[in-house]
Give the backbone structure.
Amino acid sequence: MSALVPPPRRAFAAEIVPIDAATRARIEGVSWKPEDPRCPRLEELALVRVDHATLDGGVGRGELIVAAELAGRVVELFRRLWAIGFPIRQLRLVDEHGGSDAASMDADNSSAFNFRVVAGTAQLSQHALGRAIDLNPVENPWRLPGRIVPEAGRAFADRRDVRPGMIVRPGPVVAVFDELGWEWGGDWRHAFDDHHIVWSR
């Protein structure tokens, strides 16, 4: 089976907008923590709305917050994923899950900006800077020695059994990442973070 679904027939659409008052109200104190001097200023972030294929073969519209300087590159990434038919379960701000990375992953939610540290460390995550995106965390779990996160990702731990929404190498999705300059966490050797990509150029 393929990681892809038939590409949508209609044209891809997307928009990039500044963080307005309504969006600020959604994220302040949740994913955005302005009391921390390391947290990006609102003008350093952008709200991106993009079309995406869905796992049931339909189409959806999602949103994510990213570093403003990368917003155009993020649109191009999702345009390419649309063109090849890479399906996404849902694409919602992590704030809809209370800013909890664990809850967002459990819901198989794809997301980007979240001002937080790397799990188990004091180091800021690239998500905290709006430079990383998680895609289908259930179909592409974080595989550590003796542990799979999220728990539902155990059904996808065998990366040889490729199903829609999965990211594997070799494959068309990582080929898009490589071409456009995104580093894939599935290439890491200390732990395979199959849902994680970070801007690397």
Residues 117 and 123 are 5 Å apart (CA to CA). The chain has one domain: 14-199.
